[in-house]
Design a protein that fits this description.
about 35% helix; about 160 residues; alpha+beta; 5 helices
C-alpha cells in the first residue's frame, strides 16, 4: 500500500470528523477527546481519516438512537498512540468479527448476498494501520457495544505539548 505521509493535527482531524457527523440527521452524538499532551502525528491523513470515518459509520449504523459514539486519541506510556472509536451498539460476536477482519475467507458467501455495504471496511482499516506500522484491535460484546482501536507506533508522533 502506498502511503503519503504528512503532519496531521489530531484535534483538527477528530473534530473535523465529528463536525461532519453533527451535520447529519442522526440522533447519535459524537464525543471527541484528544490527550492534551498529544498534538501531531506523521501519517497518511487520507487513509487514517477514511479508516476512522469507516469505524464511525459502523458505530452509527449499529448503535441505537440517543447513544453516544466516542472518538479518542491518547498517548500511551511507551509513546505510542491509540485512536479509538467506541459505541453502545449491538456488538459483534467473535465468529462474525473473525469473518469481518478476514473477508477473503468469506467472499463466496457474501457474493451471493445482497447488502448495502461490502463488509470490507474493517479489513481495509486493518491494512491501513498495519501499513503505518501499527495494529487494529476490536473489543466487542454482543448487546453491549464495540471499541475499535488503531494502535500506532511512537515514531509517528511529531510533536507533543508540554504537560502543564
Amino acid at each position: 500500500m502506498d502511503l503519503s505521509f504528512s503532519t496531521v493535527d489530531l484535534k483538527s482531524l477528530l473534530s473535523g470528523l465529528s463536525d461532519r457527523y453533527a451535520q447529519r440527521p442522526t440522533p447519535r452524538q459524537i464525543e471527541v477527546h484528544v490527550d492534551d499532551v498529544l498534538t501531531s502525528l506523521d501519517c497518511d491523513r487520507v487513509q487514517i481519516e477514511n479508516s476512522l470515518e469507516h469505524l464511525i459509520q459502523n458505530a452509527d449504523r449499529f448503535s441505537p438512537a440517543g447513544s453516544v459514539i466516542g472518538l479518542t486519541a491518547s498517548r500511551l506510556a511507551d509513546g505510542s498512540v491509540v485512536l479509538q472509536v467506541d459505541d453502545e451498539g449491538c456488538g459483534i460476536s467473535p465468529d462474525q468479527l473473525r469473518r469481518l477482519l478476514n473477508p477473503i475467507s468469506d467472499a463466496r458467501r457474501r457474493s451471493s448476498e445482497t447488502t448495502e455495504f461490502t463488509g470490507l471496511g474493517l479489513a481495509l482499516t486493518r491494512l491501513v494501520v498495519e501499513a503505518h506500522g501499527g495494529s487494529l484491535t476490536i473489543q466487542s460484546a454482543v448487546g453491549r457495544g464495540t471499541t475499535a482501536t488503531l494502535h500506532l507506533p511512537a515514531d509517528l508522533v511529531v510533536s507533543v505539548a508540554r504537560a502543564a
